[in-house]
């Protein structure tokens, strides 16, 4: 399940890519999902939540992960400015990783609501538009 999730595959059949554009560009269509899966017919677009909350959580996790490598390499102390350098470095890393995090948070959301082989059932509430 995890490899399929990280490569942005359909949560139900794990065969197709869920995003319209395989690459990160164009940026404004970064998180555009396909209407549904071509293979199993699983709907992707009916999700209500855009994964914003998960994205926030991932950002926090990334900040923590940055701490894990930054601390042993550069050292971290409240006596000097190293905390600020750490925050700056983390922010840059998070910004660079943001396009991927935005997609990944959507994927996590889809995987939470669509189980493997659940394509025939409607598992996500349809958005009434
Ligand atoms: Zn599918």
Structure overview:
- The chain has one domain.
- The protein is built from three helices and no strands.
- Helix 2 (52-74) packs antiparallel against helix 3.
- The two termini are 31 Å apart.
- By secondary structure, the protein is mainly α.
- Helices cover 47% and strands 0% of the residues.
- Bound molecules: zinc ion.
- Zinc ion is lined by residues 10, 12-13, 15-16, 37, 39-40, 42.
Task: Describe, in short, the structure shown.
This protein is an all-alpha fold.
Element layout with pairings:
Layout: H1 2-6, H2 52-74, H3 82-113
Helix pairs in contact: 2-3
This protein binds zinc ion.
The site of zinc ion has 9 residues, from loops.
Order of helices and strands: HHH
Low-confidence stretches: 120-129
Oligomer: single chain
Number of strands: 0
Q: What portion of the residues fall into strands of 2 or more residues?
A: under 5%
Number of helices: 3
Radius of gyration: 18 Å
Q: Per the principal axes of the C-alpha atoms, what is the gross shape?
A: elongated
State the helicity in percent bands.
40-55%
**What does the largest sheet look like?**
none
Mean pLDDT: 77
């Amino acid at each position: 399940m995890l490899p399929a999730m990280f490569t942005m595959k359909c949560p139900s059949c794990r065969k197709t890519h869920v995003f319209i554009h395989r690459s990160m560009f164009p940026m404004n269509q970064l998180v555009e999902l396909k209407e549904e899966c071509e293979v199993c017919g699983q709907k992707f677009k009916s999700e209500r939540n855009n994964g914003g909350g998960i994205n926030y959580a991932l950002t926090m996790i990334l900040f923590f992960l940055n701490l894990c490598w930054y601390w042993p390499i550069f050292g971290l102390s409240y006596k000097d400015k190293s905390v600020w350098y750490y925050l700056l470095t983390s922010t840059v890393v998070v910004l660079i990783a943001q396009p991927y995090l935005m997609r990944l948070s959507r994927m996590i959301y889809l995987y939470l609501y669509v189980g493997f082989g659940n394509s025939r059932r409607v598992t996500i509430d349809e958005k009434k538009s």
